[in-house]
Amino acid sequence: MCSGKAIIYFAYKTTCMESDKVILSIKKSARELFRRYGYNKTSVNELAKHSKIAKATFYKHFSSKELILHEVLMDYIRENVQDILDKNVREKDLSTFLANTILRVSRVTYTVCNEFVGWEFIRESANAQEYLKTLSDDLEFLLLSSFIQNETIGQTVPEERLTFLIKSSKNIVFSFAFTAVTEADVRKNFISFQKEILPYLVQATLM
């Protein structure tokens, strides 16, 4: 027979597992609906319905639609960052490794933000600056921790220099959101970043 403590622990563990399932379901629905209809045209009611939960249950786990957007974006970027690091590790030249990794992560970040929410919406949002700062700070932390844990980079480049490279690159790429008007502008900005700016940043990092 189970003791009272064992029963309480089992009930707590079961509740946590159920909560995790609900969160995963909401994230899956958000990723699918944001891609299909766009962030602005997807309501909390639709997210709850697609997740097969009550609206109150949604708000129990996420205080706003903006928060679930942020979670989905960071999950997607995190998956891609690890994939990029794993693929680029074959490159023997450290400067090439850093440049290619930063460039690919930058493209993923820009693309995923555009795909899930659209830069036009971010530009027009009253909280655009605040939202981009939160996303920018979290992305910086993710990249820095991923780079430090990577054997090719972490044991070779000091943390403060990696911070300089990531912060500088990130700020430049996020500025695209407010300066690029068309996709042609985006491509032009990335070409300029790749050929003119990134090599200088990598060189300064490895000095």
Automatic annotation (TrEMBL):
Signal peptide: none annotated. Residues 43-62 bind DNA. Transmembrane segments: none annotated. Keywords: DNA-binding. Residues 20-80 form the HTH tetR-type domain. The keyword Zinc does not apply. Pfam families: TetR_N (PF00440). The keyword tRNA-binding does not apply. It comes from the Bacteria. One of its GO terms (molecular function) is DNA binding. This is TetR family transcriptional regulator. It comes from Sphingobacterium paludis.
